[in-house]
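Here comes a specimen:
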Amino acid sequence: MITDAKIVSAGAQCCLDWGTPETRTTAEYAVTPMDLVLFGHSPARWRLRPGRDPEDGPGRHELLRGTLLAASGAGAKYIPTPETYRTLRPVCPKCGSESSAATCRKCNTPRVNQAVERPWSPQAQNCKLWAEDVREKGLVPVPRALGEANRRMMDRIIGDRHTAKLLADSQKLVLVTGTYEGKDGKNCLPLKALIDIAPDECHELCATLTTVLVVPDASPGSWSNFAVKTGQHIQAALARQLFQAATGEDIKHYLWLLVEAKEPHILGRRRSTPELDKLAEQTCERLLERMLFCRNS
């Protein structure tokens, strides 16, 4: 049973901290829907999963969430990397050839250091310094190709009139917290979930929560395999139960808005079924009980 559920914020953040091996086993760590799925796959692998490295930058899903769903202006923190960077290279003043050799063999002329343009490389020292400077300002560097693909995906989503209306009539990135009380009534497990889209009462999908996902293939068959592999139905079950406990609303369905990672960025809409919802709720409860048992044993 979920108690003390409440909506903490909306639009404030686009991803949840997944902790570290040291914090994940503490009583204060709030379990997320993704935690539950990873724990179900392998408790040991979930517990030992490394914490997030800030230098890794955002993935496709986080970037789309942060630019499409976050509060107005939040997307400005994502800074695309330049196409090129400047660096000094030994250049022959006569023929313009570059080499680490001190003298040009062709012209027999000493090379001099000149500023040259090079394609952007995350491994180059100048590029690393630029990224560090950006992060110190509280901004997030994003590879240019990823940023351009994200812009195309956003245009594709917003260009769909049904999706545009759903976004306009919804709360976005709703952070919900709560506590799961075990069947023994003695042990508790802190929970949290970030819900991408929660439609307002005026929308026809007001009893439906929605997750936006970047997928390799939005076709029904590929989606089924992807959904089972990543435990989307289990994640949805926990998020739905938390939201219902926090608001008292009767959430009848869960919707996934899919966009393909590669052009032409085809959209897809998939909805849960009552049978799948029931199975997911049962699996969710079993995993929560197992996690409580492991944490207290």
In short: Residues 84-135 form one domain. DSSP finds nine helices and twelve strands in the chain. The first helix runs from residue 33 to 41. The first strand starts at residue 2 and ends at 10.
